[in-house]
């Protein structure tokens, strides 16, 4: 039998040695002259690993291109990827690690709004500038966080564009909405519902589902019975594709609408034709004749053997925005000063060309971006708006 | 009415899957006396095996279904030898941690080898529709229900009438007495694990074409399977079947007539209610503890 | 007796001094972050240990108390403008109420049934947090939660507050398990019927264990939100309950030191394993299995066994009875 | 003076009547034996008296007050303690802890005293420890106080169970087959022990198969068969009772004697 | 035919058998008597392979069976009717008997043996489709013995067959034991009711706290002073 004394001592020894080992590890990795570090947070595993992977590819490509040109101000850049698996808590841990252990200059990410909302206080506390290329919740740029910049359209921006288009061009009376039970999905439903009602039309069904759900028959059956003219899918491509397929199986022949991710080729693949005629918004289209886009598409296809999609494009663009800001900010010995300088440079960015169109940040850090409205026709996208392009 | 019938059909499809998964869980508990916290992963791995056979290797769907069940049976035997055997007779906590270790291993192993992306698992039956009485479903959905019922019937016959099935029942009632009959406990344990894993594989391969296949599919499944197993009574085979269909229908009808927000809560509400009011399950009898 | 107490106090002082120095020596905020999380998990694992290790009631719903505490504290400070310390008290009270809620219906349940019931309870709490939009903002979570105090800017500040809290809680738990109450809990773990016949009120003590455990987990939840300043239901999945249980069991349940070692050990181990990248969780899974098969009574059990061999103090053979 | 009295005590499990209208009286200071074939309801009666089972019918009076249906811990507080047929010690706790748990219901501190180590806590603890040491000393277990209960040999485990039961300061002690697994010498020692317990002022009711123990120390014996009391009386009366011989002792046992 | 040498068994750290030796010859009934916890059941469980011996040797028909698995031991022809009957409570009487014949493949022989069991226990025939858990204690004991006989054993181990049975039934059971013996099956009998056991047995061993303290012819043991004192309640 071992006395409580001995046990307490053993415990003490262990705790102290664990703490000391932390110290040793910390001591070993002393910084020297190193490349400029950019931290990237995204869902590289978990339910959104697929778009997370595209995001990563976009960043890898941009980093490679910039380094091939000789880096920024003569220094190479390196991207450090941290996985958050779409979990806010993990996202916070990732941000902690990037800002305080890896001491990155700025952070790009993440994918889920909930994750960005969770970790943005970490980057703000560490006064580290952050470019958010994908997460669309309005609260992210409305929070007054001086270090947060976003180079994509927010939920209300794209949803109201979609609603305007549909209400103007179709004579639908009854709308149904099936959306994921997250900040993202609820935001979509709120804005779209408001637009529909404002136009004097009806929202007959508002059904929710959770991320990772696979069976939507129950919700769709219910919706079918209410006889809508159009159905808005407010979610990501995995669940969205299942909704489209199951709607077809149930004989729910209404106009399908969606956002963002539903314009990606993966969505088309997973749908297996069920997306025929679906109208959705898109941040990025391969088939335009913008030279920047052409160059990007070419390089991406060469590197990854497939055409890029929106998340790759958004993340790619974010790296170039970062490059511009870092270039303008110049060299700084002290990391805190350097970060501050990069933030200030980001705030001044105006009409910077990019693959998603020019970027200008307003005083909240939100870029004014327009989205495309496209329709799936025979596995290809037809651009409905803007018609000029 | 149409709505109701359609929802019942939806519920039957869900219920089939729940029943198949829960059957394996309850059998392992009944015979080996341990709760397999990695059972959701059996289902997921089974679905991937079916997917590889049918899509990557291009085998006909039914061949893939049977193939997946056979391969998973072997998988079950390996798991029984490597994981369950060292945990047999250990305290509950050790069993939980041990099988959870297996669960983490399988889940992330699948992430590594198959990638985290959901994949589509097309079968020819997903494109054939049946539209009667104003309700609509694919042949695949009908197939899920029919194959499930057939498997349940076969399993029941096996357990009722086959010598090995009887040996399994004997083991679940009194392991020591069973071994005194000359029943080789290790064989029964392996057969049980094999059947449990192949039923999970059937569930995965049947439902794969309807939904998508990805490593994460195990997580949602396991919670439901626990609810079903408890509702049916731990170790009770008939109970698991009835409870599986009950939960499928309850979920489907909840969405139809109450709210889709409550869909996920249904399983846990059933679980807690059963545990509080009738922990021995719908078919269980209350027994007095011997002092 | 006195000597023992003196040593304990001495040990305590050494720990406190070492802890006070840690953030000064280890400058990297990241390691400080891990140390803060280590303190929070120490509270969680130690409180679960009271339920699982001392009372023998296997629970997989501990993250629910953690979550309830976190949300209560967040909402009280955010919506009602309560000071942080009041939020903490509120979190402890509310989590305690949930402890009673879970403790009562589970009185009849044992073994696997109890585990599954607590698992279901944890999921229901999470799902309610997820769906009660008007209160919790659902999946969006609550942001901008008050920091611990205006002066608490760095992680070192948090560590200096949280570590002593963890120490105080552990000391109190140590006192508790070596008292009449603690003996009653252990008796229940060993043999419920015999315990009852020895005059121990089963219902009272089981609910007490759940409640005390919940109160401490609630406190941990409160410490967590005022540190991270964000909370969403995603932070309290079943996986979190499992993680806490792993800390208790791998550390060694039914011991005071075990859960502390488990908490710090696993927090730091998982981070060290980040180097293994995508193989991390696969290896973690195998490790868990191997550890539980080789060290069924956890790290402390193994320590006890090894030291009893080293000290040549094998089990004393009792004198023959006849 | 009647210390324990059961009136028409009955319990049914499902269709089975395990105890069937049994009247039993134990007077203060007596040693009473309860015998009968396995499954005749002896232990079930113990379980009802100690509150583990609730009787279906009938009454149990202790010191003239009804106790049937009360929770076991309440009954222990009233002054009834017991041991078990298959030893139920707190196996992984020390001998001392086992006895201290026996003291549980006689200790007056509350949860907060325990948590904060108040004066009351210190006083009650040292009091309980003194009681425990005294008991362990009297029964010769003091040297083993730090030993884990599991490591004790069978006979000492039985003894410890009795000591633990005595720690709750009972007026009535129920012993369930205390001589089970003991050899004749051990049984002799046990008989002395039981007498010693009685001499401390504790009334004893015991279930036992070892007729030598039963006949040797019991002042009165009640015989159960199929849940019913078929006889009651002194050892000599029971040994010559025709029905008892037929149901339990066996004819040969009598002729052999 | 059965030979036990210096058998030792531990439950964890507790020594349950401290070196027990005895033997049983073809055609014998041998009984082990002793108090609860003396190690009688432990001995039987070790013979049938449910427990592992920590030392010592068990030979059956000249073959060492000490480390064989229970199923192999059943195959060798040792049937163990466990204490407390242990019938399969949710199976019918017939299914229970079938389980007894689990290791056998001769359908015809099984059928014959089942008829024989029904002859020996007519009550079981009446109840053949009844669920075993609903039988009375005596009927369950008969079923347990019948189930043991279904293996067509070369040696029958009976653990406390009279436990908890009414005296009338006890007599009946012992009658049956005697019959089985007369039909040629040797029996190793563990009994608390030492008197009855020694009446029916050829030889006996007295176990006390894990050791054999006395052995001899049953008749001699019946008249032994120590046995009389300790086990016959005289």
Report on the structure:
The complex is a heteropentamer of chains A (389), B (291), C (322), D (257) and E (234). Chain C has a domain at 39-238. In chain C, 74% of the residues lie in helices and 1% in strands. Chain C has 14 helices and 2 strands, in the order ααααααβααααβαααα. Chain C has a two-stranded antiparallel sheet with strand order 1-2. Chain C is globular and about 50 Å long. Chain D has 257 residues and is of the alpha/beta class. Helix content of chain D is 41%, strand content 24%. In chain D, helix 3 (95-102) packs parallel to helix 6 (154-167) and helix 5 packs across helix 6. The longest helix of chain D is centred in the middle third of the chain and has 20 residues, at 119-138. Chain D is globular and about 60 Å long. The two termini of chain D are 35 Å apart. Chain E is globular and about 45 Å long. Chain E is of the alpha/beta class and 234 residues long. Chain E has 10 helices and 10 strands. Chain E has 2 domains: 2-77 and 153-231, 3-Layer(aba) Sandwich (Rossmann fold); 90-152, no CATH class. The interface between C and D is large, with 31 and 50 residues.
Main attributes of the structure:
heteropentamer, B: mainly alpha, two-stranded antiparallel sheet, two-stranded antiparallel ribbon, 4 strands, 74% helix, E: alpha/beta, Rossmann fold, 2 domains, 6-stranded mixed sheet, 4-stranded antiparallel sheet, 10 helices, 10 strands, globular
Helix content of chain C: over 70%
Number of helices of chain A: 13
The fraction of residues in strands of chain C falls at under 5%
Overall, the morphology of chain C is: globular
Distance between the termini of chain C: 35 Å
| Most extensive interface, chain pair and sizes | A-C, 48 and 56 residues
Please bin the fraction of helical residues of chain A: 40-55%
Tell me the name of the CATH homologous superfamily of the largest domain in chain A. Answer: Response regulator
Secondary structure: elements and pairs:
The complex is a heteropentamer of chains A (389), B (291), C (322), D (257) and E (234).
Chain B: H1 2-32, H2 39-56, H3 61-87, H4 92-114, E1 119-120, E2 129-132, E3 135-138, H5 139-161, H6 163-173, H7 175-180, H8 185-207, E4 212-213, H9 217-232, H10 237-257, H11 263-277
Antiparallel strand pairs in B: 1-4, 2-3
Helix pairs in contact in B: 1-5, 1-6, 1-8, 1-9, 1-10, 2-3, 2-4, 2-8, 2-9, 3-8, 5-6, 5-8, 6-8, 9-10, 9-11, 10-11
Chain C: H1 2-25, H2 29-54, H3 62-79, H4 84-103, H5 111-131, H6 133-136, E1 142-143, H7 155-177, H8 180-190, H9 192-197, H10 202-228, E2 230-231, H11 238-251, H12 257-272, H13 280-294, H14 298-310
Chain E: E1 2-11, E2 14-24, E3 29-33, H1 40-47, E4 55-60, E5 63-64, H2 70-76, E6 78-81, H3 93-100, H4 107-120, H5 122-126, H6 137-149, E7 155-159, H7 167-182, E8 187-191, H8 194-200, E9 203-208, E10 211-217, H9 218-223, H10 225-231
Parallel strand pairs in E: 3-8, 3-9, 6-7, 7-8
Antiparallel strand pairs in E: 1-2, 1-4, 4-5, 9-10
Helix pairs in contact in E: 3-6
């Amino acid at each position: 039998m071992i006395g409580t004394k001995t046990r307490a001592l053993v415990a003490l020894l262990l705790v102290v040695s664990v703490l000391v080992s932390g110290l040793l590890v910390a001591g070993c990795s002393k910084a020297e002259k190193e490349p400029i570090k950019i931290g990237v947070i995204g869902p590289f595993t978990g339910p959104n690993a697929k778009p997370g992977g595209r995001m990563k590819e976009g960043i890898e490509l941009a980093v490679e291109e910039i380094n091939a040109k000789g880096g920024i101000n003569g220094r190479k850049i390196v991207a450090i990827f941290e996985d958050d698996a779409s979990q806010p808590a993990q996202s916070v841990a990732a941000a902690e690690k990037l800002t305080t252990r890896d001491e990155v200059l700025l952070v790009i990410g993440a994918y889920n709004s909930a994750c960005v909302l969770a970790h943005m206080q970490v980057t703000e506390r560490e006064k580290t500038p952050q470019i958010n290329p994908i997460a669309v919740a309005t609260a992210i740029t409305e929070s007054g966080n001086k270090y947060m910049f976003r180079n994509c359209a927010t939920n209300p921006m794209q949803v109201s564009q979609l609603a305007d288009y549909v209400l103007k061009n179709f004579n639908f009376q009854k709308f149904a909405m099936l959306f994921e039970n997250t900040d993202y999905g609820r935001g979509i439903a709120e804005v779209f519902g408001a637009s529909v009602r404002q136009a004097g039309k009806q929202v007959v069904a508002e059904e929710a589902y959770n991320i990772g759900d696979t069976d939507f028959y129950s919700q769709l059956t219910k919706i079918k019975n209410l006889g809508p003219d159009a159905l808005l899918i407010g979610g990501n491509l995995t669940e969205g594709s299942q909704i489209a397929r199951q709607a077809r199986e149930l004989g729910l022949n209404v106009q399908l609408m969606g956002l963002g991710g539903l314009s990606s080729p993966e969505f088309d693949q997973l749908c297996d034709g069920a997306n025929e005629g679906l109208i959705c918004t898109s941040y990025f289209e391969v088939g335009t004749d913008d030279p920047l886009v052409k160059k990007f598409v070419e390089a991406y296809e060469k590197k990854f053997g497939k055409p890029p999609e929106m998340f790759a494009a958004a993340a790619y663009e974010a790296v170039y925005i970062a490059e511009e800001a870092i270039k303008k900010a110049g060299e700084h010995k002290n990391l805190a000063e350097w970060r501050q300088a990069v933030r200030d440079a980001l705030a001044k960015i105006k009409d910077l060309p990019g693959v998603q169109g020019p970027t200008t940040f307003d005083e909240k850090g939100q870029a004014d971006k327009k989205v495309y409205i496209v329709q799936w026709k025979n596995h290809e996208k037809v651009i409905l708006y803007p018609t000029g392009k | 009415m149409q709505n109701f019938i359609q929802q019942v059909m939806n519920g039957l499809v869900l219920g089939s899957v729940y029943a198949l998964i829960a059957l394996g869980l309850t059998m392992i508990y009944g015979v080996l006396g341990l709760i397999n916290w990695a059972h959701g992963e059996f289902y997921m791995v089974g679905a991937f095996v079916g997917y590889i056979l049918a899509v990557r290797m291009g085998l006909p769907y039914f061949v893939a279904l049977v193939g997946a069940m056979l391969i998973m049976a072997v998988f079950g035997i390996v798991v029984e030898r490597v994981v369950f055997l060292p945990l047999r007779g250990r305290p509950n906590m050790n069993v939980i941690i041990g099988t959870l270790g297996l669960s983490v291993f399988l889940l992330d192993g699948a992430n590594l080898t198959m990638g985290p992306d959901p994949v589509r698992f097309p079968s020819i039956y997903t494109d054939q529709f049946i539209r009667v009485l104003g309700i609509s479903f694919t042949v695949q959905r009908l197939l899920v229900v029919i194959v499930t019922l057939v498997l349940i019937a076969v399993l029941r016959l096996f357990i009722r009438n086959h010598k090995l099935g009887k040996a399994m029942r004997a083991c679940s009632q009194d392991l020591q007495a069973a071994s005194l009959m000359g029943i080789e406990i290790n064989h029964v344990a392996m057969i049980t694990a094999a059947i449990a894993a192949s039923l999970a594989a059937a569930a995965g391969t049947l439902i794969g074409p309807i939904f998508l296949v990805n490593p994460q599919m195990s997580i949602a499944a396991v919670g439901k399977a626990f609810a079903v197993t408890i509702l049916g009574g731990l170790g009770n085979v008939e109970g698991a079947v009835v409870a599986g269909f009950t939960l499928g229908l309850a979920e489907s009808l909840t969405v139809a007539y109450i709210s889709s927000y409550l869909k996920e809560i249904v399983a846990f509400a059933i679980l807690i209610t059963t545990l509080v009011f009738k922990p021995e399950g719908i078919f269980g009898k209350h027994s007095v503890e011997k002092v | 007796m006195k000597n023992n107490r003196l040593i304990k106090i001495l040990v305590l002082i050494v720990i406190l001094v070492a802890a006070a120095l840690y953030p000064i020596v280890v400058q990297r905020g990241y390691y400080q972050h891990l140390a803060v999380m280590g303190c929070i998990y120490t509270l969680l694992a130690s409180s679960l240990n009271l339920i699982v290790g001392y009372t023998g009631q296997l629970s997989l719903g501990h993250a629910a108390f953690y979550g309830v505490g976190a949300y209560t504290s967040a909402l009280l400070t955010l919506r009602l403008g309560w000071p942080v310390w009041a939020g903490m008290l509120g979190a402890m009270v509310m989590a305690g109420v949930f402890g009673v809620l879970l403790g009562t219906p589970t009185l009849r349940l044992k073994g696997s049934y109890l585990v599954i019931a607590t698992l279901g309870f944890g999921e229901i709490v999470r799902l309610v947090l997820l769906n009660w939009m008007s209160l919790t903002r659902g999946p969006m979570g609550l942001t901008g939660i008050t920091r611990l105090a205006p002066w608490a800017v760095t992680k070192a500040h948090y560590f200096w507050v949280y570590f002593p809290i963890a120490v105080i809680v552990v000391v109190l738990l140590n006192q508790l398990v070596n008292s009449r109450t603690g003996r009653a809990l252990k008796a229940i773990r060993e043999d419920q019927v015999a315990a009852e016949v020895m005059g121990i009120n089963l219902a009272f003590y089981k609910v007490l264990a759940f409640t005390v455990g919940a109160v401490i987990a609630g406190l941990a939840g409160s410490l967590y939100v005022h540190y991270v300043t964000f909370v969403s239901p995603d932070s309290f999945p079943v996986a979190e309950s499992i993680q806490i249980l792993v800390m208790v069991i791998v550390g060694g349940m039914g011991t005071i030191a075990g859960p502390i070692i488990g908490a710090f050990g696993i927090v730091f181990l998982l981070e060290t394993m980040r180097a293994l990248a995508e193989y991390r969780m696969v290896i973690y899974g195998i490790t868990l299995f191997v550890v539980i098969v080789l060290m069924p009574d956890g790290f402390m059990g193994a320590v006890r066994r090894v030291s009893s061999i080293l000290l040549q103090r094998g089990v004393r053979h009792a004198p023959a009875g006849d | 003076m009647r210390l324990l009295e059961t009136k028409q005590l009955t319990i049914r499990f499902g269709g089975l009547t395990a105890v069937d209208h049994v009247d039993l009286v134990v007077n203060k200071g007596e040693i009473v034996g309860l015998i009968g074939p396995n499954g005749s309801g002896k232990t079930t009666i113990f379980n009802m008296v100690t509150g583990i089972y609730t009787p279906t019918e009938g009454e149990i009076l202790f010191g003239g007050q009804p106790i049937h249906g009360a929770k076991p811990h309440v009954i222990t507080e009233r002054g009834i303690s017991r041991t078990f047929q298959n030893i139920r010690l707190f196996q992984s706790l020390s001998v001392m802890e086992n006895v201290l748990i026996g003291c549980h219901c006689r200790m007056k501190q509350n949860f907060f005293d325990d948590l904060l180590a108040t004066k009351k806590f210190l006083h009650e603890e040292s009091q309980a420890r003194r009681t425990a040491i005294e008991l362990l000393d009297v029964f010769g277990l003091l040297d083993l106080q730090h030993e884990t209960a599991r490591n004790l040999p069978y006979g000492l485990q039985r003894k410890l169970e009795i000591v633990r039961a005595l720690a709750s300061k009972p007026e009535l002690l129920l012993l369930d087959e205390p001589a089970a697994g003991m050899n004749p010498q051990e049984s002799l020692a046990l008989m002395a022990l039981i007498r010693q317990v009685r001499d401390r002022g504790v009334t004893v009711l015991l279930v036992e198969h070892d007729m030598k123990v039963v006949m040797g120390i019991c002042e009165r014996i009640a015989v159960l068969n199929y849940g019913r009391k078929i006889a009651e009386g002194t050892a000599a009366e029971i040994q010559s009772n025709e029905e008892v011989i037929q149901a339990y002792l066996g004819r040969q046992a009598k002729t052999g004697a | 035919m059965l030979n036990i040498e210096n058998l030792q068994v531990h439950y964890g750290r507790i020594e349950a058998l401290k070196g027990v030796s005895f033997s049983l010859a073809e055609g014998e009934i041998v009984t082990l008597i002793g108090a609860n916890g003396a190690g009688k059941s432990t001995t039987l469980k070790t013979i049938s392979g449910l427990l592992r011996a920590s030392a010592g040797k068990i030979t059956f028909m000249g073959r060492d069976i000490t480390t064989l698995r229970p199923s192999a031991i059943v195959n060798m022809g040792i049937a163990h009717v466990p204490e407390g009957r242990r019938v399969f409570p949710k199976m019918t009487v017939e299914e229970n008997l079938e389980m007894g014949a689990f290791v056998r493949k001769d359908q015809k022989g099984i059928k014959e043996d089942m008829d024989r069991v029904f002859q020996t226990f007519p009550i079981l025939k009446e109840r053949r489709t009844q669920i075993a858990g609903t039988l009375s204690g005596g009927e369950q004991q008969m079923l347990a013995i019948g189930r043991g006989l279904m293996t067509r054993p070369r040696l029958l181990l009976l653990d406390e067959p009279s436990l908890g049975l009414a005296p009338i039934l006890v007599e009946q059971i012992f009658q049956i034991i005697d019959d089985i013996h007369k039909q040629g099956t040797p029996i190793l009998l563990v009994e608390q009711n030492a008197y009855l056991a020694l009446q029916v047995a050829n030889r006996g061993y007295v176990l006390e706290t894990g050791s054999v303290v006395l052995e001899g012819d049953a008749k001699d043991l019946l008249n032994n002073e120590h046995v009389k004192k300790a086990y016959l309640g005289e």
